[in-house]
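Fill in residues.
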């Protein structure tokens, strides 16, 4: 089986050095494995995505010397696939509807008996307020009942191929329950979520190696749970180091100071960018 990896930017801002490193890493892995890098726009959050960022991303990636097969996947066109996956998970009885606002969750976590809230890959771990309430409201968010999900899937692991944590990682059920909890599968505004869309689309695109930053390492166990529940194939993972600014802070979308377009405007070459990210 030949290697298929991907670069999956969200067009919510310009590409910066961190994205360049991610795309160049995915491309290098594809080349060295005799495979291919696919491109996917993670544009489910239509309120935050902008066509001008998408055009700029295409342009920056081509300027870096990268190429990819067409057509490029857009998550904004994949709602039917997410709905089908969600229906399957609902039929398994591993989901529930949640009507909590951010404020409700903050208030529940502030209750004295809760102690200090755990911070998981999606922020504070949901206290489970709606888990047994049996909400039927079709406009509510849908959460994964992590305890029920784990009971169905049994022991899980994933294969990490990145240099920092290479090897087989066992997924601890206790860690998933305590540090991740009942993640949102479908937000009320967009009807899906990062975790659900990524899991469904990596399978739909035949991804055999997921290349992404170490900031998403803790999301991988969630994706493994969803893959098992949905009978999807298991890819390998390559979580790469993060590019930081001079102060050691991780670059974010709003770091326009490190946008590729700014380096380009100042006359940098693709070779300069490779050097800046340590390649
Ligand atoms: N769309 C995510 C981002 O822009 C990447 C998701 C992934 O690689 O799993 O950071
Ligand atoms: Zn709730």
């Amino acid at each position: 089986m030949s290697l298929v990896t991907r670069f999956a930017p969200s067009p919510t801002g310009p590409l910066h050095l961190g994205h360049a490193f991610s795309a160049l890493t995915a491309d290098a892995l594809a080349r060295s494995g005799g495979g291919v890098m696919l491109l996917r726009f993670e544009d489910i959050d239509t309120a935050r995505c902008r066509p001008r960022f998408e055009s700029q991303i295409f342009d920056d990636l081509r300027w870096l010397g990268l190429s990819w097969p067409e057509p490029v996947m857009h998550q904004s066109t994949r709602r039917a696939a997410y709905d089908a996956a969600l229906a399957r998970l609902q039929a398994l009885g591993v989901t529930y509807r949640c009507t909590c606002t951010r404020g409700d969750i903050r208030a529940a976590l502030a209750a004295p008996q809760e102690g200090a809230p755990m911070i998981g890959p999606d922020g504070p771990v949901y206290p489970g307020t709606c888990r047994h309430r049996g909400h039927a409201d079709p406009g509510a968010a849908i959460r994964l009942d992590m305890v029920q999900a784990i009971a169905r899937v049994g022991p899980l692991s994933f294969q990490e191929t990145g240099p920092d944590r290479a090897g087989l990682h066992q997924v601890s059920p206790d860690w998933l329950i305590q540090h991740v909890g009942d993640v949102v599968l479908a937000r009320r505004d967009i009807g899906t979520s990062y975790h659900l869309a990524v899991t469904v689309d990596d399978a739909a695109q035949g991804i055999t190696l997921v290349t992404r930053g170490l900031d998403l390492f803790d999301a991988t166990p969630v994706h493994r749970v969803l893959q098992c529940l949905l009978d999807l194939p298991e890819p390998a993972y390559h979580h790469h180091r993060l590019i930081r600014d001079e102060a050691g802070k991780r670059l974010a979308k709003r770091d326009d100071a490190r946008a590729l377009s700014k380096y380009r405007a100042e006359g940098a070459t693709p070779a300069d960018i490779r050097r800046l990210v340590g390649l």
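The two ends are 28 Å apart (CA to CA).
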